[in-house]
Every structure is written in structure tokens, then in C-alpha cells.
């Protein structure tokens, strides 16, 4: 995560739920949010859980109903982390308070940049992001799409922000939904494979605890090997697959199930649903 020598201006995270909270944790650990971070949540309990983080001002809307507007007014970068249906009302609330040149970044799935720009006007830069849940362990893949008013510098500083929780891929907005079917939903596909691998181990007589350790650590270890290697995953697979061996027989079964078609169909279905959600269906 190449954030060396980068410092970030004042940041507001409006709606620091699971994803906003994960990004907040990454910012705090990185030490580059030198301008401070203000976060808002609805309840005092949620606000209190973040109040002790260094450099963080955590505010409950139940205590300060104008907290979103106040946080947005004092920030150079504003992350919008509320639920998609709440986005338009929030934008109308903060629009009069945003300083010219503020960067507003969407964390809300399915809400297009055009919605932000139509409400906020041309004096602010808008970017749309699509992080995934490994942000919690600073291993996210975040898709980042820039609106027409976002400069190269705006994109760079926003990229640095998201690099505190993982890797960033810059894409045109037209590819954000497709990206969400791979990296956004991808952790669920991985967890499903671990589930099924665990069941297979149980079916072969192993206790549940043993089966989980074998399945989980095998996938974790394989991922670590892939990360540490410059070798293509197909080649790594071939190295495990000895000619006429047990793995070759297992791979033949998996390939006969046409996993290529299954994954294509699964991600196609996710893309259809993403477009339905964007259309409000």
C-alpha cells in the first residue's frame, strides 16, 4: 500500500457502519490522516465505540442532529457511508455546507455519480468507490471511479485514502457494477468454497474442528503462496497436479463440472441484480 510520505486533509465519514468503520480503522493505523477524521453515527452507543481512536471525533446524530452538515463543512474529503436509499436526503442536507473543491466519495452500492453531481453541483469533485469486506483486515480490493469534475490530484488523494485498507483499481464508472461481481461479491464465493471443502472433509470421517482447520488453512496457505509468488495461478496449480496422480483425478472432476461456465453464470447473475438495484428495483 504505497502511502509513504502521503498525508491526508480533514476527512468526514458520514455513516461509519461496517465499511466506513473498517476504512476508519485503516486510516487511524496508517498515521496519514493528519488532518483528523470526524465520523457520524445515529446512536450514542455506535459513536462511543469509535470515540477513543486517535485523531477521531465521533458524533451521534441523536445528540447533535446537525452533525452531518457540521462534519461535511469542516472536511476536505467526505465519505458517504449511509444506506443507498438514504443518500439523496443526506446529500441535500450537506450540499449547502460543502466548501468549493471538497471531494465527496460514495461508499453506497448502486448510487450513480450522476445522482451525487445533480444534488451537489459542480463545485465539488465526486468519486464512486466499491470496497470489499477484507478492508477490515487491510486486504481490500477497492474499485474507484471518478466523476467528470474530479481532477488527477483528487483521484490521487482518494486513492491514497483507500490504500490504507488494501489495493485500489481505478475503473470507469461503467465498470463498477462488473467489478462488484468479482471483488465485491468475491469473498462470499471464497467462503462458500471453504464451506463445501469442510463438508467434504467431514464426509470423509474427520471431526468438524479438524475439517475446518484443514479447509481454512489450506485456502489461507494457498492464498499466501500465490501472494508471495510471481507465478501465474494456473502454473501453481500444475505444480501441485502430478501426472496420473490423485490431484489430477480430482481436477478432472472439477473441470468436467464446467466451473468456467458456473462462475461466468454466477457473476452474470450478480451483474443483472446490480443493474436492477441501480434502477431501484
TrEMBL record:
It is found in: Cytoplasm. It is an enzyme of class 1 (oxidoreductase). One of its GO terms (molecular function) is pyrroline-5-carboxylate reductase activity. Residues 173-277 form the Pyrroline-5-carboxylate reductase dimerisation domain. Keywords: Amino-acid biosynthesis, Cytoplasm, NADP, Oxidoreductase, Proline biosynthesis. InterPro entries: 6-PGluconate_DH-like_C_sf, NAD(P)-bd_dom_sf, P5C_Rdtase_cat_N, P5CR-like_CS, P5CR_dimer, Pyrroline-COOH_reductase. Residues 11-110 form the Pyrroline-5-carboxylate reductase catalytic N-terminal domain. Gene3D superfamilies: NAD(P)-binding Rossmann-like Domain (3.40.50.720), ProC C-terminal domain-like (1.10.3730.10). Pathway: Amino-acid biosynthesis; L-proline biosynthesis; L-proline from L-glutamate 5-semialdehyde: step 1/1. Its EC number is 1.5.1.2. It catalyses: L-proline + NAD(+) = (S)-1-pyrroline-5-carboxylate + NADH + 2 H(+); L-proline + NADP(+) = (S)-1-pyrroline-5-carboxylate + NADPH + 2 H(+). NCBIfam families: proC (TIGR00112). Catalyzes the reduction of 1-pyrroline-5-carboxylate (PCA) to L-proline. Belongs to the pyrroline-5-carboxylate reductase family. HAMAP family: P5C_reductase. This is Pyrroline-5-carboxylate reductase. It comes from Microbacterium terregens.
